[in-house]
Amino acid sequence: MSLNSLAAIPPYVFYELDARRQRHRAAGKSLIDVGIGSPDGPIPDVVIEAMQRVAADRALSGYPQFRAHPAYMAAVSGYLDTRFGVTIDPATELHALAGSKEGIAELILSHTNPGDVVLVPEVYYPVYARATLLAGAVPVFVPFLPDGRLDLEAVAPADLAKARVLIVNYPGNPTTSTITLDEFARLVSFAEQQALLLISDLAYSELSFDGYRVPSVLQVPGASRVAVEMHTCSKSFNMAGVRIAFVAGKRAAIAQLDAYRSNIGYGVSTIAQLAGAAAFTHHEAIVPPIVAEYRARRDAMVQAFQAGGWDVHAPAATMYLWLPVPAGCDDWGWVDALMEGPGVVVTPGIAFGEAGRGRFRVSLVQPADVLTTAAAAITSIAAALSAS
């Protein structure tokens, strides 16, 4: 990374959103914040108990292991087997991460050179493009087909010739798009044909509803030849502040990531890893009540939007709603109208790339009654703006 590449990156939209939020709060404004996707639920008791035990263990006061603690390896391997029927060699196909965001950035930085291309969905989690720019590489944005699949045929041959990495995010943030195992197989085949590293960002693996079961790319036969997958405790286990995740899959990519990380850091907190081990070990007990809470919140807010005359459909996965900005408003104008009026904070679609312009994201990070209030306020402001 050079200073020039850092200077070339535009300001982070979430910083601007936070600055506007803080200005209103400093002026005494009460806000309903459904902007940032930060879980508001409690860390599971079994995880807290694990952290308390290991924090008192003097044997763990030294540096952590570079790749992963053996207990974390065992818990993750068991989770992948139980949840997806996927078998990995934890010694060579797994790496602990202090959150999947940093892992995605480090994979990009360790697998690209200046001038290389990284294929990124046109509506994307910001680190995909920002880490690419920090590496001196070029993000090329892949459009979506109407059904939410990536239109890989739209990638120009010249860009494809320089491509080294393809990133996919299903269930999608912020789009809420879902994926089938057949579609994952198509992506694996494409990555193999084009000699790409396929990175599957599976941050919402457990947050699915109405019978939809999120698949893993590693369920595709032979996927570990070309793919790695990011899993995190942040959303599914209410552990965003603990900063623990993992990447599994292609062993050469894991080795390259390990070589990169060992030069800039010293592993992931052992306390965080053993907290994650508790979460993955007990996922079958932890996940259902968390999913039930998000389902209830989703249903309440969708019904409130529908009552206000909005054509909103309940997504099959994630903790978001992805909605159109009312006609006549731009992204920031709409965000400001909501903050200045009823005091509702939402995320502008432009935060997720130019293709996100004209939409906004709502996070289901408030109790159902608060979300219902927020939806009623949003539809009321939209109606007032359309009438003016």
Descriptive overview:
- With 388 residues, the chain is α/β, with parallel strands linked by helices.
- It has 2 domains: 3-42 and 287-387, Aspartate Aminotransferase, domain 1, CATH 3.90.1150.10; 45-284, 3-Layer(aba) Sandwich (Aspartate Aminotransferase, domain 2).
- 43% of the residues lie in helices and 13% in strands.
- It has 13 helices and 12 strands.
- It has helices at 3-7, 13-26, 45-55, 70-84, 100-111, 127-134, 157-162, 181-194, 251-264, 270-281, 283-307, 331-340, 368-387, and strands spanning 32-33, 94-97, 117-121, 138-142, 163-168, 197-201, 227-232, 245-249, 320-324, 344-345, 347-348, 359-363.
- A 7-stranded mixed β-sheet has the order 2-8-7-6-5-3-4, with helices on both faces. A 3-stranded antiparallel β-sheet has the order 9-12-11, with helices on one face. A two-stranded parallel ribbon has the order 1-10.
- Strand 3 (117-121), helix 6 (127-134) and strand 4 form a beta-alpha-beta unit.
- The radius of gyration is 21 Å and the shape is globular.
List keywords for this structure.
alpha/beta; Aspartate Aminotransferase, domain 1; Aspartate Aminotransferase, domain 2; 13 helices
Q: What is the CATH architecture term of the largest domain? A: 3-Layer(aba) Sandwich
CATH superfamily heading of the largest domain: Type I PLP-dependent aspartate aminotransferase-like (Major domain)
**Largest sheet entry:** 7 strands, mixed
With helices defined by DSSP (H or I, 4 residues minimum), what is the helix count? 13
Uncertain stretches = none
Helical amount: 40-55%
